[in-house]
């Protein structure tokens, strides 16, 4: 059995071990387990049943992870995307006054379109057409973005009315994150295997001992019923009969498309999978996440996509689909151990996100900074991902600048034809986002 697992996932080929892959999957899960609690809270604001959303989030995430691991064989996890779930709840349902059932139907229709363009390899062609320098910028930009998320989650960076952001007050659980990050840095410098996971575990224990994190009163609970949300997306497809709803569907499609594409490229760069500026088996990876989005809409959750927190597992050494399979199994188990998951607060996972940001930022060194026509769009991507709090927005702005700078530098013929197409697509994308708000 062990030999079959090693052979199927190509664990030896990637210089890994079963133990390391499972540890990586556990680390990824710990880093993104917060979505089990955050997603129901966000969608709950749209009057959806929080218990049903919790179960839908767990099952849809598990399905995507298992597809990504068993079919695409990548150490990349999937879950409902942050940002697009807020758009679903606050812009579509609350802002536009659209019933959540109809909004779910919009996600369902977008997922079907997603599957079709994936089957016809349009998504794969677009990813392959993105120049190598921009892919490095996307990877490094994601690193800065998730480091920013980590610092925000830890309370190291806080909102500031005068300067937008500023240094927070180091007290309470913020010190827990700082201690976790310092321990993580020391362990990694000492080349201790599983340093990221060990540091998070120690931080959680310290938090419970000091009372900064409340200890769980129970360990096991039954999974909430899916009945309130299951199948609502299919029942309300006929409700999509206005131009406003068509725009909503297009927005779900575009945001998830480019968010996931950027994340996949960034993670592939981090793991060293890219070959000749192409991601092997990218078609299978794209089919996995689009299938998960379809399943998620039927179960009752906002769009599913590849998760940047997968970088935590990759940093631990995860290189095969076994990592994603492990994460998927843990999402299923997470439905029954929800009280225990509350111990893993954002203050515990924040150090991992910051550290992964350090590792991914290294791709900035590979960008051709001596060529201004490359440096400008690359910098735009790097700067706007964290500052707009959106991977998709960062990619959009960078890709818009790229043809402009290349044509100005008299290198327009070197721009792949699809990049010119993307130039106009992203202009429309940004227009839809602006007018949809």
Provide the succession of SSEs: HHHHEHHHHEEHHHHHEHHHHHHH
The CA-CA distance between the termini, in Å, is 53 Å
- Tell me what portion of residues adopts beta-strand conformation: under 5%
Low-pLDDT residue intervals, each spanning 5 or more residues: none
Structural class by SSE content: mainly alpha
The structural domain count equals: 1
Give the count of helical stretches: 20
What is the CA-atom radius of gyration, in angstroms?
Answer: 21 Å
Mean pLDDT: 87
Note the main sheet: 2 strands, antiparallel
Strand order of the largest sheet: 1-4
Shape verdict: globular
Query: Helix amount, in percent?
Result: 55-70%
Let me know the number of strands. 4
Topology of this structure?
Blueprint: H1 2-9, H2 18-32, H3 35-44, H4 50-72, E1 78-80, H5 84-95, H6 100-119, H7 122-129, H8 132-154, E2 157-160, E3 164-167, H9 173-189, H10 195-210, H11 232-235, H12 243-271, H13 282-299, E4 304-306, H14 310-316, H15 321-334, H16 338-341, H17 346-360, H18 372-388, H19 391-408, H20 417-436
Helix pairs in contact: 2-14, 2-15, 3-4, 3-5, 4-13, 4-15, 6-12, 6-13, 8-12, 8-17, 8-18, 8-19, 9-10, 9-17, 10-17, 12-19, 12-20, 18-19, 19-20
Transmembrane segments: 21-39, 51-72, 79-98, 104-122, 134-158, 170-190, 197-215, 245-265, 286-308, 314-333, 340-362, 374-403, 415-433
Protein name: Xanthine/uracil/thiamine/ascorbate permease family protein
Keywords: Cell membrane, Membrane, Transmembrane, Transmembrane helix, Transport
In short:
The protein has helices at 2-9, 18-32, 35-44, 50-72, 84-95, 100-119, 122-129, 132-154, 173-189, 195-210, 232-235, 243-271, 282-299, 310-316, 321-334, 338-341, 346-360, 372-388, 391-408, 417-436, and strands spanning 78-80, 157-160, 164-167, 304-306.
